[in-house]
Specification:
Order of helices and strands: EHEHEHEEEEHEHEHEHH
Distance between the termini: 21 Å
Radius of gyration: 16 Å
CATH class: Alpha Beta
Largest sheet: 8 strands, mixed
Helix content: 25-40%
CATH topology: Rossmann fold
Shape: globular
Number of domains: 1
Number of strands: 10
CATH superfamily: NAD(P)-binding Rossmann-like Domain
Length: about 220
């Protein structure tokens, strides 16, 4: 597939690029094409980096893609959804965006009026665009370490079964991650709120790259 990482020049974008470019065409997007191209050069210098990746401006990245991953902070969500709406056609949009704030002592979940960043993205995009939320609790540093087994769960929310299945398949391509369906897109607030909780726990207990694993007596088998 052609996967656009919109606002993908940061840590999380680099992580997705490293994981997906061996099997897919990855397009790094940025407000300025030259910044995206600079990011690509940096990615290709990482240990073990190999695959098909190129950079361009956000609008061109969206227009060229089948799947769009929103790699932006919540305050930039409007600029990569509503402001770029003419570039969207039939893409599947994945939102790992987490609306949080930090007061110097505590990370807090700070959702928009829609209830979650995923629902906000859906409200700003053309009505035919399918939005799935996922990857909120996967640390960017862990994604960038290509040979690292993450040994965690990815909680996926979405209203379209086919779109959820695509995201499930992408999750299975990342070594040792397990995709779990968490409910419709309206459940995204529950999943997004886990990230500030993890950050607070990690900070107070000196835990590096904290993630989520769902424990059960009989874990579901991956197919």
């Amino acid at each position: 597939m052609k996967i656009a990482l919109v606002g993908g020049t940061g840590d999380i974008g680099t992580g997705f690029a490293v994981r997906f470019m061996p099997s897919h065409e990855v397009i790094i997007g940025s407000r300025k094409a030259d910044k995206a191209q600079e990011s690509v050069r940096g990615i290709m210098q990482l240990p073990g980096a190999d695959g098909n990746v190129w950079g361009t401006d956000n609008a061109s990245a969206v227009a060229a893609a089948e799947v769009v991953i929103l790699c932006v902070p919540p305050e930039h969500l409007r600029s990569v959804t509503y402001d770029l709406s003419s570039s969207f056609d039939k893409q599947l949009v994945i939102s790992p965006v987490v609306p949080l704030s930090y007061d110097g002592k505590l990370f807090r979940f700070n959702p928009p009026p829609e209830g979650s960043s995923a629902q906000q993205a859906q409200s700003l995009l053309p009505p035919q665009i399918k939005v799935v939320s996922a990857f909120h609790t996967v640390p960017a540093a862990s994604l960038q370490a290509q040979d690292r087994e993450l040994r965690g769960d990815v909680l996926i929310c979405g209203d379209d079964a086919g779109a959820v299945e695509v995201v499930r398949g992408l999750t299975l391509e990342i070594k040792s991650l397990r995709p779990l369906f968490a409910g419709p897109l309206t459940a995204s607030s529950l999943v997004e709120s886990l990230t500030p909780m993890l950050l607070n726990v990690a900070r107070r207990n000196r835990i590096k790259d904290a993630g989520v694993s769902i424990i059960s007596e009989r874990p579901p088998a991956l197919k």
